[in-house]
Every structure is written in C-alpha cells, then in structure tokens.
Amino acid sequence: MEKKSYKKPLILGVLFFLPVFFVLIMSISKENYNTLDIVKENVRELPATNELQIQLKDHLTVLAFFGKKPMEKATEASNLKELIYDKFKGFKKFQIVVLVTEEAKAEAQQLYKEIALYEDLRFWHFVYLKEGEINNLFNSLKTNTVLDANLATSNVFIVDTDLSQRGRLDDRTDNEIASNKPVYGLSSYNCIEVDQLKNKMGADDLRVLFTEYREKRKGNFDSSQRRANEINNNEQEN
What we know:
The chain has 238 residues and is of the alpha/beta class. Helices cover 44% and strands 15% of the residues.
C-alpha cells in the first residue's frame, strides 16, 4: 500500500513538470538562436537602368560575377544551379543574379540555355552591366578575392534584403578553436569547391538565413541579434 501511495504523486509530478521542462528548453534554444553574420553593410544596388529591372533590395540574393566570358564559368554555373538554385528556388524572395558585361549578352544566353535544360530558371537572372558598374558593385563587397581580367570570379556572395552581405565572421573548425588558432572569416563561397558550396553555403548558411527570415515574419526574431559590434571588431582585426 505504501508503494502505491508514492507512485501516484510521482506520476503526477512527472506529468506536471514535463511540459514546463519542454517550454524551458524551447525558450533557451530561441535565446541561443544564431543568425548568419553580417560581414559588410551597404552593398551597392544594381543600376536601375539594367534591362530586366532586377534589384537586390528586398531579395535574398546569391550574387555571381561572370564578366566578359560567361561560358568560361560553365562549371561554376552548373554547380551553382545543381547545389544551390535547385535547393532554394521555392523560397520566397530567393534569386541568383549573375553579372556579365553588355557585350557578353549572346554568350550569357547560350550558357543560360545549357544549364536550363527545360527546367524552370525564373529566379536565375543574367544582368548586363557596363564594366565600371560591375567593378563598383564588386568593390562594395567584403572579399579577399579579385576579379580577373574578364571581370569574373569563381566566388559568389550572399546579399540579404537590406543590402547587407552575409557570411561567417569566424569560420574556424572546432579543432582550430580548441587550438586557439587566429580567427578568420568566410565572406564568399567558391563554386569550384563543391564541399564549400554544398555544405557550408547550402546546408548551413543559406538555411540559417532563410530560418532567420521565417522567424522574423512570425514575429519571433529581433534584428538586434545580428551582432553589429562583431563586424567592427572583425574589421579592426583585419
């Protein structure tokens, strides 16, 4: 009889505290929610005179530079299409914008046909700009890379709806952190390095960014969490 008298209060106690424990865990996870870092603010907007009237503002953009010879970036375009575009094309406001020179329009259209293969590429845009306009936009980004002689690079960039460039202020591995290695960031993603494009950009960073915007729409996200102070600290270190 004595065992039965203890059993009932124990079960009632578990049933009472289990929901409380669940709510506590959920609240902790929200407090520790990490957004995708802002590595540079005030990315230059596309000229309003571009033929398709494509804009970066109010979109989640993967920005690429294929310059004067876009067909030479066919491998990068294919990787970007298969590993990033196909995965995120259904997300609201997502787009891939590829900058090429005005003289490369025919070649860009040829590349577009090659990667399309009867698929829906409505969120993939080739934007034709003057050379100076391409350079000005590229120079507004934070990057350790440079454009080659054809105004192209294999690296792509994430630009958010507020014209802020996203990436990682600290891209060290757990082992590097444990070994106290110097901090280094990730501001762009190499389309030739499939692992970086697929796992860092696709599986992690863009997924985190879309989660951030989904939480913001639901009213569960405070934009002050973007760690603006870390940007300044990172720039001072560099």
